[in-house]
Design brief:
The structure is a single chain. This protein is of the alpha+beta class and 232 residues long. Helix content is 23%, strand content 28%. The chain folds into 2 domains: 1-30; 38-231, no CATH class.
């Protein structure tokens, strides 16, 4: 074998090794396209996820009864008030725990803001800015609600306007616990954001049965709404 041929063989061998190493790294770092990412909370509940824009969202409502450190969250039975009670609470709609597996639980904003952590490890409560980015990615407020709502009327009251769940977000009308007690199951999905507006109110996003619109507004922090998380 000539020196020229030896050099060519050596170069091809190096290229082959480099390709194998590169392929090995890619396989290790990038999971298969059909491998779904899941998130597990401290109670052992496992949630599916979906990518919307540049963020990976948990596609189910939070249902944990404990903070991330294992401390139990206060169970709410009282009416939400406009007072200075800043304790965190969770509620089962109409005090019916049997539906929590479907709709998740309702949390007041103080539970979201507790330093012990409400979101599962590796996640955080979606900020208002992250909601805004998701809505814009899905075409804006006018149509994004339809893309985020579960389709059909298994859980939503008719007409469930514009709902096709094309985003995979699978929004459910879990209702609220507010000043007058429980309300809106089947009609509206209220989602807290982690964004505080002032001492007594924070920003929330709302999906409704009768429109494809994504609404937003300030609500008393003692109100209890659904919660969605985003992976860190």
């Amino acid at each position: 074998m000539t020196a020229k041929h030896k050099s060519l063989v050596a170069a091809l061998f190096c290229l082959s090794c480099l390709a194998q190493l590169t392929s090995g790294c890619r396989d290790k770092e990038d999971p298969p396209a059909d491998q779904e990412i899941t998130v597990t909370d401290v109670d052992g509940n496992t949630y599916k996820t979906i990518k919307i824009g540049n963020s990976v969202w948990v596609r189910e409502n939070l249902k944990t009864t404990h903070y991330r450190n294992g401390d139990i969250i206060n169970t709410g039975t009282k009416l939400a008030t406009r007072n200075t009670d800043t304790e965190g609470y969770f509620y089962n709609y109409n005090n019916n725990e049997s539906i929590a597996g479907t709709y998740g639980r309702l949390y007041d904003w103080y539970a979201l803001n507790d330093p012990r952590g409400l979101a599962p490890a590796g996640c955080h409560i979606a900020t208002n800015e992250e909601w805004e980015a998701a809505v814009e990615f899905l075409g804006g407020n006018e149509v994004a609600g339809g893309k985020m709502k579960e389709a059909g009327q298994a859980h939503w009251t008719a007409p469930n306007a514009g709902a096709d769940n094309s985003s995979g977000f699978t929004g459910l009308p879990a209702g609220i616990h507010y000043i007058n007690g429980f309300d809106n199951l089947g009609y509206n999905a209220f989602y807290w954001t982690s964004t505080s507006m002032d001492d007594i109110s924070a920003m929330a996003r709302v999906l409704s049965f009768d429109k494809a619109f994504v609404s937003s507004g300030n609500y008393y922090k003692t109100g209890a709404f659904s919660v969605r998380c985003v992976m860190d």
